[in-house]
Design goal:
Shape: globular
Largest sheet: 2 strands, antiparallel
Structural class: mainly alpha
Strand content: under 5%
Mean pLDDT: 88
Low-confidence stretches: none
Radius of gyration: 21 Å
Distance between the termini: 14 Å
Amino acid sequence: MSLLPLFVVFPLFMAFFIPMVGQRVKVLPDILGNITTFLLLLLSLFTLGLSGTYAVGGWPAPLGIIMVLDGFASLMLFIVALISFAVTLYSINYMEIYTSKTRYYSLFLLMVAGMNGVIITGDIFNMYVFLEIASIASYALVAFGCQHEELEASFKYLVLGSMASTFILLGIAFLYGSYGTLNLAHLARQISEIGTTPASNCALCLFMAGFGLKAALVPFHPWLPDAHPSAPAPISAMLSGLVIKTLGIYALARLVFNVFGLTPVLSQILVVFGLLSMVVGVFLAIGQWDYKRLLAYHSISQIGYVTLGLGLGTPLGILGGIFHLVNHSVFKSLLFLNAGSVEYTLGTRDMTKMGGLKERMPVTNGTALTGAFSIAGLPPFNGFWSKLLIIMACVQAKRFSLAGWAVLVSIITLASFMKVQRYVYFGKLKEEWKGVSEVPLAMRTAMVLLAVFCVLMSLLLLPEGRNLILTPAVNALLSGRAGYLQLTWSAFFK
């Protein structure tokens, strides 16, 4: 557990170190950025399946700040590190068309440090601080191109993101006024002993709105379809693959399951949010002709599957929700990198102007097909198994209409991505694209890495992978307040 602070300290240090030395040697920001994310990936592998606490500065809670690692947190740390490494690898060539790479990697690592902090913090105010670090960095990265479209999208993201942060901060103030503590474990114990108050119920409503905005759940989603397409492709991959999950779904799940406790009312609210997001997102996506905007709407739809699974509150539903959360991180990041490769080569996101690119860009086409099969839920790709678990959980809970909607949305998703394949990669190669070629090696390597994980992550359902990685994550939420207290309460008496 003494290594736990490195998930925040290391990227935070490198975020300030890279601008200091990056101006002297052109390739230094790329080297240092990729080394940082690769070392975080190695470090995250050592934490998989582990649990424990770390008191920052040796100060015990509730006066001191503690970091908490459980099965859910360790899985999220690994996914953040994996996607971040693939994205920095992809950025080596892609970000050449933009401005200063030193500023890019600095903001990027600030965002990673913020997400890692949200995952491992045991204090709700520090969760807010880390959330703001990641959010402010992401606002700047969306506008990194400094063109009209990027600036407009970033401003909308900034306004709605600031509203979400205000809701969350007000909720924290209500909780502190009711219980006199900000430590998550202490809050959980106070709520279990005293019960909820009108102020804490108000705080929970504010958290649902604030984290719902961060997660882009319907009806809190309007910022996402502008921010994700406008951002540089690596940042689009980070936003859809990690940011909406870490700052939205993960934080909300941590509070609902481990602090407040999942009640039938909360369960129903999450199910409704999940169903609305699934259906509205996919119907908005299927009519899009902007490649990245289509993917952005599918992020809303797929995050609905995650919320639906968690909202069911059953072991199978939570397993499906968590598994789909990490699966979506992989295949949606891959799909945004594919779209970025096409835009990098052709200079357009309009699918009606494309066609026949499988002849000129075979690696991009092959990995895009893998991502399409994964998000549509076709076997043997990872998306099939997590969607199947969620549908089975709906049937097991006798929520047959929810299972029917989940199947229908998956079919429409497949139709949407067959449209992408038809208009972008298949068909006749247009005359103006006969001279294009495949993207550089680093970009191809990043896409192939994520495509391989789209297949390999299906193996997590085998007994070895499930017991080591998925079961501890499910137990972390399923055990509720009692499990979280059992893990963290000893930190109060160090």
